């Protein structure tokens, strides 16, 4: 402690002050206190100190780093407190806080580092990333770009589950050493070494400040994959591990830590989906498709409730007389943002999240109601049937038989005027509940059709035991017929295969519909080999329900 007059000069000091500053106690008298404890190095502290000397401020407290005469740094806490007015002095006290600062540094290190790998942890990583993305950090110098390799280990959970967490922790530590070596090598002769951090579990990140482009990040990712190829020897356990890496590289300007990590996480998912053991670079177009897919998925159920779906119908035409025998109902989504979407854009999503049950139930009722309306509008003409697509999940996740029975009863449509289409893979794998449902529907009088026949895993012996009445030949077979009359020789194998399938179907008592009929030549050849009905642009594209009435005219769908 020291007594300082109103001019800022030391009047007297105790021995501890002399020892702390490595000067004799007598030598301190008359010296400027501000110089002894560095109070004038910044304007704010200097002003506060002057205010205390003048009696205008109650107290000053600050932390200072002093240079000790023997060369080491000394952290002290300085407090300046006014004494009674009669003393015309202030009390300066200086406390050595070096041990406390060291403890704080140790605690911060523990707080900011992973205990298993001793790498920076998630907290320190994001602190460093945020600092990199601050405007001042990239405007003053550097390339103004940032790169990130975000990786996790393939199959690490299996190692933890089978060999225990102790072995798993040893593996993580060994991986951390190799990643650090890769970062050190990548940082050689460069401005900065990539920061390696463990973000949690088996996830690691390598942050590259002032990156020079995607080539630098690709090179780093390749070196990481190569480094992890060699087996790990861990206390008698020889383990092999690979990694999937998401790579993102972009301008720091306009980038947020959250946005960068989302991009890295998405790209890591792509690397795993593409086969694991590889790195994948962030692709804005692929990400846009993913975002669109996510937007569609999240909007499916509300869209059904808002009535954004509609049905179009494509005629199924008799090959012999060209009359419309039936129609296939095809669902369309009139999306407020993306426009009219065809089933290939959303049916897969609906099957994934289960909304296909609700959507399928709506399509079934709408199609049956429309078919019954056509029948009532044309009481003197043979009625046309309606064909509705059914996903296998509808059979598992709902009572399809009850839904169909209820819909037929509600709409008044006869069962034989309803055809349900299931894909070949779904029907051929039917057993238990699905097979019982198909049989019950068939017994009810509803026709069952196998869609896209010939593309799945056909078990012809099993086919004879299924309650199926119609085979729809996949369009890939029919397209082989389109060369007739063009000067290109058709492949005779196409016709042989199709003719064989048609004959087989007829022997089993089934009728055959050919999909994707686009030319008169195709229609003629299909008619010649015995195909029953055709469907395709030759007859009509999918159209709204009011157009079907025009096409029901016997002459309307004759191929020209």
Automatic annotation (TrEMBL):
<dbReference type="InterPro" id="IPR000160">
    <property type="entry name" value="GGDEF_dom"/>
</dbReference>
<dbReference type="InterPro" id="IPR013656">
    <property type="entry name" value="PAS_4"/>
</dbReference>
<dbReference type="Pfam" id="PF00990">
    <property type="entry name" value="GGDEF"/>
</dbReference>
<protein>
    <submittedName>
        <fullName>EAL domain-containing protein</fullName>
    </submittedName>
</protein>
<dbReference type="InterPro" id="IPR001633">
    <property type="entry name" value="EAL_dom"/>
</dbReference>
<dbReference type="InterPro" id="IPR000014">
    <property type="entry name" value="PAS"/>
</dbReference>
<feature type="domain" description="GGDEF">
    <location>
        <begin position="144"/>
        <end position="284"/>
    </location>
</feature>
<dbReference type="InterPro" id="IPR029787">
    <property type="entry name" value="Nucleotide_cyclase"/>
</dbReference>
<dbReference type="Pfam" id="PF00563">
    <property type="entry name" value="EAL"/>
</dbReference>
<feature type="domain" description="EAL">
    <location>
        <begin position="293"/>
        <end position="556"/>
    </location>
</feature>
<dbReference type="InterPro" id="IPR043128">
    <property type="entry name" value="Rev_trsase/Diguanyl_cyclase"/>
</dbReference>
<dbReference type="InterPro" id="IPR035965">
    <property type="entry name" value="PAS-like_dom_sf"/>
</dbReference>
<dbReference type="InterPro" id="IPR052155">
    <property type="entry name" value="Biofilm_reg_signaling"/>
</dbReference>
<dbReference type="InterPro" id="IPR035919">
    <property type="entry name" value="EAL_sf"/>
</dbReference>
<dbReference type="Pfam" id="PF08448">
    <property type="entry name" value="PAS_4"/>
</dbReference>
């Amino acid at each position: 402690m020291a007594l300082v007059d109103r001019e800022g000069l030391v009047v007297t000091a105790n021995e501890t002050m002399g020892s702390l500053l490595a000067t004799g106690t007598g030598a301190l008298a008359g010296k400027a206190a501000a110089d002894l404890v560095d109070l004038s190095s910044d304007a704010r502290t200097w002003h506060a100190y002057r205010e205390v000397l003048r009696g205008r401020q109650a107290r000053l407290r600050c932390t200072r780093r002093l240079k000790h005469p023997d060369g080491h740094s000394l952290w002290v806490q300085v407090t300046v407190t006014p004494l009674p007015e009669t003393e015309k002095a202030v009390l300066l006290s200086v406390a050595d806080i070096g041990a406390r600062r060291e403890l704080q540094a140790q605690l911060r290190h523990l707080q900011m580092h992973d205990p298993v790998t001793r790498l920076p942890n998630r907290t320190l990583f994001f602190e460093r990333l945020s600092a990199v993305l601050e405007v001042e950090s990239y405007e003053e110098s550097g390339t103004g770009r940032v790169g990130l390799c975000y990786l996790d280990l393939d199959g690490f959970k299996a190692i933890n589950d089978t060999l225990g967490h102790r072995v798993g922790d040893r593996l993580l530590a060994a991986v951390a050493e190799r990643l650090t070596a890769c970062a050190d090598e990548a940082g050689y002769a460069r401005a900065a070494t990539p920061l390696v951090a463990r973000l949690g579990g088996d996830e690691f990140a390598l942050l590259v400040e002032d990156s020079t482009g995607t080539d630098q990040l690709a090179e780093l990712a390749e070196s990481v994959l190569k480094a992890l190829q060699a087996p790990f020897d861990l206390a008698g356990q020889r383990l092999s591990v690979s990694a999937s890496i998401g790579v993102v590289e972009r301008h720091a300007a306009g980038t947020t830590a959250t946005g960068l990590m989302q991009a890295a996480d998405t790209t890591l998912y792509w690397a795993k989906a593409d086969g694991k053991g590889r790195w994948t670079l962030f692709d804005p177009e692929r990400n846009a498709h993913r975002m669109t897919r996510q937007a569609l998925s999240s909007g499916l159920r509300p869209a059904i409730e808002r009535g954004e779906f509609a049905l179009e119908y494509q005629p199924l035409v008799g090959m012999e007389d060209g009359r419309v025998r039936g129609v296939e109902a095809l669902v369309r989504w009139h999306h407020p943002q993306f426009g009219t979407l065809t089933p290939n854009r959303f049916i897969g999503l609906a099957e994934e999240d289960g909304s296909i049950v609700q959507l399928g139930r709506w399509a079934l009722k709408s199609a049956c109601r429309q078919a019954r309306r056509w029948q009532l509008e044309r009481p003197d003409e043979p009625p046309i049937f309606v064909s509705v697509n059914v996903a296998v999940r509808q059979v598992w996740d709902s009572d399809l038989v009850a839904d169909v029975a209820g819909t037929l009863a509600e709409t008044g449509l006869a069962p034989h005027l309803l055809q349900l289409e299931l894909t070949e893979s779904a029907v051929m794998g039917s057993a238990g509940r699905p097979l019982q449902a198909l049989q019950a529907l068939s017994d009810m009088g509803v026709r069952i059709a196998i869609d896209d026949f010939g593309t799945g895993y056909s078990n012809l012996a099993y086919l004879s035991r299924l309650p199926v009445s119609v085979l729809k030949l996949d369009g890939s077979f029919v397209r082989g017929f389109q060369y007739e009359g063009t000067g290109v020789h058709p492949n005779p194998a196409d016709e042989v295969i199709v003719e064989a399938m048609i004959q087989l179907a007829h022997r089993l008592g089934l009728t055959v519909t050919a999909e994707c009929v686009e030319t008169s030549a195709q229609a003629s050849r299909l008619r010649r080999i015995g195909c029953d009905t055709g469907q395709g642009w030759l007859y009509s594209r999918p159209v709204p329900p009011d157009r079907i009435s025009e096409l029901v005219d016997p002459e309307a769908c004759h191929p020209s």
